[in-house]
């Protein structure tokens, strides 16, 4: 429901105006004022077109014609009636049109004052009652239009925020897909060279890599749903140190980043979904590498605890902001301007789907550390 009629009635009550009494006073003057409406609408439209912010967006386009025609129609309704809810709804629509054209509230107000003064000046001096009726009517119109204009701007802002968030999500998914696709592309290239030379050694290794990363790419497209729905892991027994070692072998690390992997074989087995865990740790590895800006040390450790396995991923970057460290797992929260803030949120969701825990911390020596604890 459009709230413009409610606003008009409330504004009339606050101003002590009788809407029904205004109508006959205004319709008396319509024959005098109606001929001047096209000129007023045209002049106001031209003034709007001369605004610096409207350069190249308004003049000599269908927008200018649409604005002038809308103003003329509305002014005739304003003078001729009926002065009921249909007028306030039309006024609200006109204000929303102004907002879509990019006009600010103060500019809308200046335009209304211009129209009001133009109409009042056109009335003979003895028409004091009609002039007062016009001025009172414009008071109500201002209340309706400014509220509608504000609501339109707020809605457009919310839409732009949603689109910006969607853009970040698309960028994140695209980035995530590049990792498995790069591995697939490299393995296919190696396979082609080997087969062309009649070599068969290593073929199975590359085929396994292609299969594993193709499955990951398929799952990435649907991983965002894991933020809003529960997907049961399809578990199997995994030797966690060997699993992590394979992922690190496939990790693309800049030459000036040193990898330190302390993967104790005694960490043993975990019951887990390999595709989901691959997503978790590739996110953590990638975040750590990006945090160091091309130089530093990436450390990965795996240890068995009491009834669980603890995996820590640590970097030598700037660390997490201390005051916001509890927020790093929130969706769309990122400490990097180019980040979409989905990697850690998805990692937490997938870890918790395994009845595990994940935490972020800043170790005493500097950098950042993310620790994943899985039952095992």
Task: Give the structure's gist in a few sentences.
By secondary structure, the chain is of the alpha+beta class. It contains 12 helices and 7 strands. The model has no long low-confidence stretch (mean pLDDT 82).
Topology:
Layout: H1 4-15, H2 19-28, H3 30-33, H4 37-49, H5 62-80, H6 85-101, H7 105-122, H8 128-196, H9 203-223, E1 236-239, H10 240-250, E2 257-263, E3 269-272, H11 274-291, E4 296-304, E5 308-315, H12 343-353, E6 357-361, E7 368-375
Parallel strand pairs: 2-4
Antiparallel strand pairs: 1-3, 4-5, 5-7, 6-7
Helix pairs in contact: 1-8, 2-8, 4-5, 4-7, 5-6, 6-8, 7-8, 8-9, 9-11, 10-11, 11-12
Can you put this structure into words, describing what you see?
- This protein is an alpha+beta fold and 376 residues long.
- It has three domains: 4-161, Globin-like; 165-227; 236-375, Heat Shock Protein 90 (2-Layer Sandwich), CATH 3.30.565.10.
- Helix content is 59%, strand content 12%.
- A five-stranded mixed sheet has the order 2-4-5-7-6. It has a two-stranded antiparallel sheet with strand order 1-3.
- It is elongated, with a radius of gyration of 33 Å.
- The mean pLDDT is 82.
């Amino acid at each position: 429901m459009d709230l413009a009629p409610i606003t008009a009635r409330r504004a009339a009550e606050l101003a002590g105006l009788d809407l029904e009494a205004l109508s006959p006073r205004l319709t008396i003057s319509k024959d005098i004022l109606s001929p001047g409406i096209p000129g007023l609408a045209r002049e106001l439209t031209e003034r709007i077109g001369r605004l610096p912010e409207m350069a190249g967006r308004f003049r000599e386009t269908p927008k200018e014609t649409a604005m002038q025609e809308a103003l003329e129609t509305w002014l005739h309704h304003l003078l001729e009636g009926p002065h009921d809810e249909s007028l306030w709804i039309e006024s609200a629509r006109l204000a929303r049109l102004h907002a879509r054209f990019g006009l600010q509230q103060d500019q809308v107000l200046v335009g209304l004052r211009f129209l009001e003064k133009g109409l009042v000046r056109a009335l003979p001096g003895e028409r004091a009652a009609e002039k007062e009726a016009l001025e009172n009517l414009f008071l109500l119109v201002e209340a309706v239009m400014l509220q509608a204009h504000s609501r339109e701007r707020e809605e457009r802002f919310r839409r732009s925020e949603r689109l910006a968030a969607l853009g970040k999500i698309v960028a994140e998914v695209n980035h995530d897909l590049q990792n498995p696709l790069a591995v697939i592309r490299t393995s296919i290239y190696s396979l082609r060279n080997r087969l062309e030379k009649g070599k068969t050694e290593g073929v199975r290794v590359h085929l396994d890599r292609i299969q594993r990363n193709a499955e990951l790419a398929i799952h990435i497209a649907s991983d965002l749903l894991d933020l809003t729905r529960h997907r049961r892991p399809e578990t199997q027994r995994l030797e966690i140190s060997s699993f992590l070692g394979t992922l690190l072998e496939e990790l693309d690390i800049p030459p000036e980043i040193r990898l330190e992997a302390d993967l104790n074989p005694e960490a043993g087995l975990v019951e887990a979904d390999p595709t989901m865990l691959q997503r978790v740790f590739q996110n953590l590895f990638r975040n750590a590498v990006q945090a160091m800006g091309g130089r530093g040390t990436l450390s990965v450790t795996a240890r068995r605890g009491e009834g669980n396995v603890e995996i820590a991923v640590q970097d030598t970057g700037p660390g997490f902001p201390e005051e916001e460290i509890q927020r790093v797992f929130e969706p769309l929260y990122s400490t990097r301007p180019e980040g979409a803030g989905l990697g850690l949120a998805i990692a937490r969701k997938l870890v918790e789907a395994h009845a595990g825990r994940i935490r972020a911390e800043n170790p005493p020596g500097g950098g950042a550390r993310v620790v994943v604890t899985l039952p095992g």
